[in-house]
Specification:
With 191 residues, this protein is an alpha+beta fold. It has helices spanning 2-17, 40-54, 133-154, 177-190, and strands spanning 29-34, 57-61, 66-74, 86-96, 99-110, 114-115, 122-123, 127-129, 165-166, 172-174. The longest helix is centred in the last third of the chain and has 22 residues, at 133-154. The model is unreliable at 4-25 (pLDDT under 50).
Length: 191
């Protein structure tokens, strides 16, 4: 019964969102990171390295001092009925001197494709705008965590202060290896 309700809810959400822009209310979210004593080129090089490790995709424009990347991070709650929601985002870094302005935009809540073991059916996942206050708070918290991790790296502090863990199977980020264990169960179900 739960699966049927879940399938109907996902179908209704997909139909409702057809043709709508998935821009979330409450975003973009920005943070300015000071990198004392660093040149624009040094900050860009560190951003290139950080993005290579954590971003799903990224593009560096040395002339404008801009690094644009995309990413996905786990939603900070346990999987609901075996579904792990994630928060997808676009991150733009604008470097001026020793300062990086990080802006998160196009933030959406994603549900993955669900596989029904009994019937073998697949229910496509959806991406929806982050509108609910609880979801906005959760997304802001997660994006702040990503920005804090970047700040720790750019300033040359210990990366242990704010670790990010990337799933070995896909581009999803998590805050701890324990958090990704729930996410990894999704990979095991699809094999």
């Amino acid at each position: 019964m739960k699966r049927l309700v879940l399938m109907v809810a996902m179908l209704i959400t997909t139909i409702a969102l057809y043709g709508l822009d998935v821009q979330a209310a409450g975003f973009p979210y920005s943070k300015v990171i000071e990198v004392p004593g660093a040149s624009k080129e040094q900050v860009l090089e560190k951003l290139r390295t950080w993005s290579g490790n954590y971003a799903d995709t990224y593009n560096v424009d040395d002339k404008t001092g801009t690094v644009t990347s995309t990413g996905v991070i786990t939603y900070p709650s346990p999987p609901i009925d075996r579904i792990q929601y994630t928060i997808a985002f676009e991150m733009k870094n604008t470097v001026q001197g020793g300062k990086d302005t990080v802006t998160f935009d196009k933030v959406v809540l994603k549900s993955p494709t669900t596989y029904m073991l009994e019937s073998g059916e697949k229910v496509a996942g959806v991406s929806v705008p982050v509108k609910d206050e609880r979801d906005i708070a959760a997304a802001t918290n997660r994006l702040n965590y990503v920005a804090d991790n970047l700040e720790t790296y750019l300033q040359g502090k210990s990366t242990v202060a704010c670790p990010l863990v990337k799933c070995p199977e896909c581009p999803v980020l998590g805050t701890t290896s324990e958090e990704l264990k729930g996410h990894m169960k999704e990979h095991m179900k699809t094999e």
